[in-house]
Amino acid sequence: MSTPHLVTIDPALQAEERFIPFEGERTWVGIVGSEADERATGKLPLLLLHGGPGACHDYLESMAALSATGRRVIFYDQQGCGNSDQPDDPARWTIDFYCREIDAVRAALGLDRVHILGQSWGGMLLMEYLVRRPAGVVSATIASSPADMPMWIAETARQRAALPPEVIATLDRHEAAGTWDDPAYEAAVQVFYDRHLCRVVPAPEFDQRSFAKLARNPQVYRTMNGPTEFHVVGTLKEWEVLSRLDAVELPVLLTSGRHDEATPAQVERIADRIPQAEWVLFEQSAHLAHAEEPDRYMAVVADFLARTEAGRGVVRGAATRAPGEGAKALRSAGAGSLTGRPGPSPS
Length: 347
What we know:
Blueprint: E1 16-22, E2 25-32, H1 35-41, E3 46-49, E4 73-77, H2 95-109, E5 114-119, H3 121-130, E6 137-143, H4 149-161, H5 165-177, H6 183-196, H7 205-216, H8 219-224, E7 252-257, H9 264-273, E8 277-282, H10 289-292, H11 294-309, E9 330-332
Parallel strand pairs: 3-4, 3-5, 5-6, 6-7, 7-8, 8-9
Antiparallel strand pairs: 1-2, 2-4
Helix pairs in contact: 2-3, 5-6
């Protein structure tokens, strides 16, 4: 059996790997696809911002499939995690630091015109980056991200309250004691994650690999977020970008899952604030639609990128709205199917 920490990126992807110097440390980058393909197809590269904070690129590796459309798909591990340098420096891990890192990656790779996709925390970071109005960003995809952390906390608390009573009791006991690394607490957290993080059980290998790396060094996650998705006690606890999103004028694709931690009520508020937003809801997915319904997800993103490159407008829809899903931007991805055995359906 291979040792997980030796895997930098799936060898089958034949990625070009390099390190970029940034503020005294190194940021790892993995590039799938080639500039020659982009010149031949007229496509633009796609830069991916992973979640966490403090996770790494691995769980996004299914997005490499988009290189088949003739564009580079560019992964990188934000400093503090994954294959990048990980200094013991909690004060380093800030939104401004990570926005500067995006600029450093773009400058080093010559990404003058680029699409950017941010997933979860990556989408939060992307929204912060976009309100600064950076030059050369052709489109943005915000995948399963909140724009208001107090609302995220309220929504995940509601989801947590629907867990079995014995699970809630275990969570309460260990959160009060601060024993977040206790196996019983971790098992109780997994019940929530099987419902609202990834409904494919067991999770795909690349997702498990990402979580294993996060577990080895949780400093960024615990500094900025906290011990779990629903127990937020870090520096992002009061964060919000919703009130500033009217500064975002480029085309934006919002994606989320029906069972997502980033609930429809949260994504609706983002859709209503961004003039050129469209929102696609994946009916079978939780927080990782790109891994749970990958074929359907890649088709949606590929279509959006192609339309923005062709100068065609956003697509509005009115399909399958439920209470709290009134945004004019919403359309359903359709019935869909998971890539593996589903976890328990949320009540």
